[in-house]
Amino acid sequence: MKNIPHQFTLIDKYYAALQRIKQLIIDEVPLKDENLGEQLLQNGIINPRDKTQSIEAYLEEQNAKTPSNRGHKTAGRETIKFFKLTGFLIIYDDYSAELTTRAIQMLSVSTESNRLILWKEAFQQMGVEGIDGEISHPYRILNRLVQDKPGIETSKLMLALEAEDDSPEEYSRILSLCELDFVEILETLQISEHQARNAVKILPSLAEQVGDIVRRNNFSFPVGQVLITEDDISTQIPQEAKTENGVSYSQYRKVDSDQIAIDPTFSNIVPVSIDLTEAIRTRQNRLAHHQTIVRKLALLCEENNFELYEGKFDCLATTENNALVFEVKTILETLSDQEKQTVKGVGQLKYYDFSIVRKQMGYENTKQILVYSQKPEKSLIEFCQFENISIVWMDESENIFKIHIAESDTEINFEPKDL
């Protein structure tokens, strides 16, 4: 089984370590293991095991040991290896060093969301060489495993480091190993539990931090991907995915107000010959607004003691016998945009209510609610009323939801428990 450095599991620590490497290069200090190790100590990136021990006393104690047993030197060596693997660092024979373009870009980016994109790209490119010289890309293999086997035991993700190369045949072998239980895998590969723990220590943590997987207990699931098309905003969940309870993950899953509508991460937009940059940026802004509204709506329902689900629908709020099905649409001032979003929203509500909430989840008493980012045109309210769909919208000035009451043709504050 291949090995990758696992000195840290937190991306923030790697980022801080990269800053220290940059400073050593600027100061023309040889990038030796012990020099970086001391910098990691001095800047609190690593710490003595004895919290009461000063750094000076710790270094004096460590320097009395043989070089291979010095903890800070090991930390420096493992950190350097990690940055070489991820393509951030070049080391020369005289221990002078150079940051790559990728590392310089990482250190120049000001927002964490953009840094996460760069980390993800670096992990995807991380190639690891085996004893026979063959290269595999463990992070890519890990993501394939989670996509192909949603709900896989996290401990089995060590198999991402077992692959000799990236060939389909080798991946098929890894998939077959996944069918064994953990002890059988250890026996088949003839590795110790300690080796297995090291193999699974870092990659799943990194994947979780950049938003590629989510871990629940000892199981790992792919993160639903947010799709942005010209006129659609939806959450895509892998078609064959199952939760740890065996529920179809592609239809619905139980969440709470902190888990629902996770903010998307956008790449920088590069103009092309046909410049769609502004249109893409507009859709991105609408999606971010959409997710904010879903979270506020979910929190309101949760405060009213509803249980929450997310799936093809934007939000489902349930009590013991009743279900509120919400579809959220961000709209512009133009009637054409509002009409297009309304027609889509009505179709989605009726289909999801029938196919998922009633047929799959078994609710009979359901209410369909179309939620807008602002108050829509009256003609659209009347259309939805005709279709027995309640109309709710976000009042940004008061930061509350309003609902239209058909009988009195008035609007009041929206309370989910009143429906």
Task: Please outline what is shown here.
The chain has 419 residues and is α+β, with helices and mostly antiparallel strands. The chain contains 14 helices and 17 strands. Strand 1 and strand 2 form a beta hairpin.
| SS field, number of helical segments | 14
Q: What's the arrangement of strands in the largest beta sheet?
A: 10-11-12-13-14-15-16-17
Name the assembly state.
single chain
Number of domains: 3
Would you identify the regions where 5 or more consecutive residues have pLDDT less than 50? 225-231, 267-276
Percent of residues in helices: 40-55%
Backbone shape: elongated
Which range does the strand content fall in? Answer: 15-25%
DSSP strand count? 17
Tell me, rounded to a whole number, the average pLDDT.
Answer: 86
Estimated radius of gyration: 26 Å
Going by helix content, strand content and strand pairing, the class is alpha+beta
Question: Separation of termini?
Answer: 58 Å
Q: Summarize the biggest pleated sheet.
A: 8 strands, mixed
List the helices and strands and how they pair.
Layout: H1 11-26, H2 33-42, H3 55-63, H4 71-85, E1 89-91, E2 97-99, H5 101-108, H6 112-124, E3 128-129, E4 135-136, H7 138-148, E5 152-153, H8 168-178, H9 182-189, H10 193-199, H11 203-209, E6 213-216, E7 219-222, E8 225-229, E9 232-236, E10 252-255, H12 277-303, E11 307-311, E12 315-318, E13 322-329, H13 335-358, E14 365-372, H14 378-386, E15 390-395, E16 400-405, E17 410-413
Parallel strand pairs: 13-14, 14-15
Antiparallel strand pairs: 1-2, 3-4, 5-7, 6-7, 8-9, 10-11, 11-12, 12-13, 15-16, 16-17
Helix pairs in contact: 1-2, 2-4, 5-6
